[in-house]
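LAB NOTEBOOK - FOLDING QUEUE
OPERATOR: T.R.
BATCH SIZE: 2
PURPOSE: Compare the predicted structure-token outputs for two unrelated chains run back to back under identical settings.
PRIORITY: normal
REVIEWER: second-year student, initials M.K.

ITEM 1
FIELD SEQUENCE / FIELD STRUCTURE:
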Amino acid sequence: MEAQFGRRSILKGGVGAGVLLGGGSALLAACGSNGSGSSSAGAARSLGLSLTTDPRILAGFKKKTGKVMQGQADTVGNMQVQWAQGAYRQLDVLEPNAQWVGPIQGNKLFKPVPVSDVPLWTDDVLPLFRKAGAPGYVKESGWPLKTVYTERALESNELDEFTMVPTWFGFDAFGYLENKVTEGEDMDSYGLIFDKRYAGKAALFDDAIQTPLKVATYLQGSGQYSFDGPLGSLTKDDLAIVFEFLDEMKARKQFRLLWNDFGQLVDLLVSEEVWVCDAWSSAVYAANAAGAKARFVDNPTEGNNAWWYGVLVSPETKNYETVVDYIDYWLGGEPHQIMAPQGYYSPRPDLVKPLIENTFTTDPDVSDWEYLYAGATDKRPSLESRIQNTAEWQQYPDEFAEYSRLWTEFTAS
């Protein structure tokens, strides 16, 4: 791979850590801003993505339990901002990427949920969400357990109280056009993004946290640099190394652009404006459906970057029983009849299996269970192998302000 960079000095300095609590108040206006508490008892309200507020999922919950969860959709970046600004007073549930739970956790803007209150959280839940040291657990960062459980539950090692209950998760990596990227030394390495043969045809995700994580995963996994701390929460010195590498790549015009939208990435691949890119699997699959000859690398040589979403409960909810039933509904598997064909996983695969083992929405020759979870074809690895190949989890870094500063400088230069 043509992405090596030489030994370099450690750079010092930088601004202090910060908390992302800016943004508008559209959600508060929509919910009402009198601070009088969450929705009335009986009908609970959730703020999530369009994926989790899918009418089919919410209708299924009502059909199964007779209870109502009203969904309101927002973007990943806006949800936690609105919550921190006071939306937790009007809503019962937030369903965010755990990457953004740090400020919420630190400011106690959640109601701890006893594990005993969630009937389907049993020993059948994947060990990576229950046990330190299990496959997929990253010792250096403590993820994913660090945000699954409360500080008290972690310190006592009882793991008996949730900050947020995991409901679905997945992995990010990269993709490329098979008709444009030629066979090389390692077609599963992130190094393809930084290979000088594809200068001007590579793209990165425009994200101040996730892209540095991916670069650090590549540099460490390829043996070019050994970082002192967690890959998902780099020190200022280690961040300097990551951005020195990115600046070198930018100076030689490696990147066509930074993408920031699902549809944009699909269009870039279909038009062949971009040949290799940091990517979401769903966007690569959509590009294929639109005629591109794209491949998503499910198990990169240097390791996966994992992420998870869950249910975080408002400290002011008046609908706690409905919320707990909603959590159990997700763990019970029904929403994953919709989520699984999009490439997303459940913490309770055993309960998803009977629901999708006789459906064939992703491949006419093998069931959705075999294709999406079991790895029965060479088109997609098993969930087990992907968990074992986890390099790090997306997370809110201790030095967020430094990440933001350096990313702003990188994108503006």
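ITEM 2
FIELD SEQUENCE / FIELD STRUCTURE:
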Amino acid sequence: MKLFDNKVQETKYKVLREVAVQTWKGNDVFAEFNEVASKIIPKDEPPQRCCIYKDRAVVAERMRLAIGGSRKNSNVVQVIDIACDECPEAGYVVTDLCRGCLAHGCIEACKLKAITIDENHHAKIDKTKCVDCGRCATACKYSAIHNFQRPCEIACKVGAISMGPGGEASIDYEKCISCGSCVYHCPFGATVDVSSIVDVINCLKESTRKDSNNPTVAIVAPSIGSQFLYAKLGQVITGIHKLGFAEVLEVALGADMVSIKEGQELVEKGFLTSSCCPAFVKYIETKFPDMVDKISHNYSPMAELAKFLKEGHPEYTIVFIGPCIAKKSEVRKPEISKYVDYAITFEELQALFDSKNIILKEQEETEWNQATYYGRIFARSGGLAEAVTQALKELDVQDFEFNPISCSGIEECRKALMRASKGLLPNNFIEGMACVGGCVGGSGNMIRYEDAPEEFEDHTEEATAVKIKPNLRKTINIL
């Protein structure tokens, strides 16, 4: 069973693991740089870049982001410029397939006179005039003109990434929604999410002291059912406890809370967009500001559960563990930061396990069955709408026709929001997920949902609670 989708994730994990090892020991991470770097980039192996010195310089930058990054840059997703391969300028280019034909249909198609013919009758594109309209590519009978794009630019569906002045990738943070798609898709790992792993370890060390009255509590996203497939879920929960977490709770409980509240708000307002995905919410705020008032006023499942816990136990330090890089931005919002202290990904959780030599397959199983089926299916596209349908039944709503549309990925979200903004959308509820497939496709996952659909579905169906409201009443009394 593979642990990661690609080598970039594996390298990122190695840095996080070694940083965690040093932090558990109480060492200054950069004081131990040579030890860390030698484990990640051994000197007797061929360098990944031009030389071992550049490889280790990139490791140093990764370490800097792993310990929280610079205070001068508060953005969650950042570019390591020396790691960027500075891919060739994107856009339409003439390839070697050009036959130097007599027709030169590309010239006729270009209205801006951006194409010239050299002495070999081959076409050339003047990038200072080209606007990437694509007419030349359409006109070429040999398909010799191709639209090349950087992987990070292709991955970013909100157009937040472009070429910087030095050729490296540059992020426009006015457009960025922190979805982390560029982090996952960059083949060189030049785009990286800032980590709170050091802060979390320090909290765990403090909370497990005998005289401590500040327990650290983990709230875990339901998409964990598609991760850590080399062990049983109950063993994973035991492993989280062994890290020092006093409690390990399902964020699906927060999803149960949201489904009831969102159903009530929808009936009251008549039209609503979901508020569960922070990247989707940010997308509305940046691209469709006139629709901000349509966003549900309810918190995300993470924040709803954390709010309930903090109101009863203000001494808790609450750490969200999930698939979502955008959650790292969400927990920095003033209205959320008072409830959730830190957010880490499943990638970072794996690094924590290995930094403490916790072998999950050797652990006893912990029973973990707090939420309903409906709370757990929030992790996949369409799950939220299905849960709200159930909530409306339990609320005994009679005179309201629920007509949702579930959007998987930002492109589908854009189409639905565009129609809604013009009054052309027949639906009265937009469930928006920035990641294709939903949270199970999140950029902080170790593997994609398509590699583990059965395991996730098994996790949802193992929920013993049948109805949302009765289960919430019972669980709230326990918590």
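REVIEWER COMMENT (ITEM 2): The radius of gyration is 25 Å.
FOLLOW-UP: none requested
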